[in-house]
Amino acid sequence: MAGCSAINTIDHIADDVHNSNLNILTQHTYAGECGQDYKAVILNAKGFGGNNASGLVLSPQQTVSMLTAKYGIEAMSAYSARNQAIKAVTRKMILMRVKGKKPFAISLVRRLWMRIQLP
Q1: Which residues are CB-neighbours of 19 under 8 A, at least 6 positions away?
Q2: Of all residues in the chain, what percent carry a pLDDT higher than 70?
Q3: 63 pLDDT tier (thresholds 50, 70, 90)
Q4: DSSP per residue over the chain, as a string?
Q5: What pLDDT is stored for residue 90 in this prediction?
Q6: What are the tens digits of pLDDT across the range 15-47?
Q7: Mean pLDDT over all residues of the chain?
Q8: Upper half-sphere CA count for residue 45 (Cβ side, 13 Å)
Q9: Residue pair 77/54 in contact by the 8 Å Cβ criterion
Q10: What band does 1 get if pLDDT is binned at 50, 70 and 90?
Q11: Which of 13, 17, 75, 90 has its CA 20 to 30 A from that of 119?
Q12: How far apart, in Å, are the Cα atoms of 72 and each of 65, 67, 89, 118?
């Protein structure tokens, strides 16, 4: 995927790992243009000294689906309408960066964000 990078840290799966229900990747895998080919992934990190951590990362589509199930279509439609202001500011900031200009007040984005959060 363009613009994304990661460090592969394993070259094989240990023999004692039960992985019949898992797709443990050891190489980069294309997940679709916007990650839509996967609903979710689990990132696992095994630290030195036995400290392990796992994190669930949901796709944008799965996140919206779950929020819609929880809050309903009406609330999500209202959120989407309010979110248009954030998208407009974000587009302006990206264009300014592309043109080599420093984006204007980040506090504006924070103020807008506070207005669009779900109940």
Answers
A1: 13
A2: 75
A3: very high
A4: -TT-------SS--TT---TT----SS-----TTSTT-SEEEEEEE-TTS-EEEEEEE-HHHHHHHHHHHH-HHHHHHHHHHHHHHHHHHHHHHHHHHTTPPP--HHHHHHHHHHH---
A5: 83
A6: 888 878 888 878 877 878 777 788 888 887 776
A7: 78
A8: 7
A9: no
A10: very low
A11: 90
A12: 10, 8, 26, 11
Neighbouring-strand partners of residue 57: 41
State both tokens at 49: 């000294």
- Tokens 């979110």: give the residue: 83
Burial grade of 79 (CB within 10 A; 0-12, 13-18, 19 or more): middle
Q: How crowded is residue 75: how many other Cβ atoms within 10 Å of its Cβ?
A: 14
Residue with tokens 């587009």: 91
Of 118, 93, 96, the residue nearest 107 (C-alpha): 93
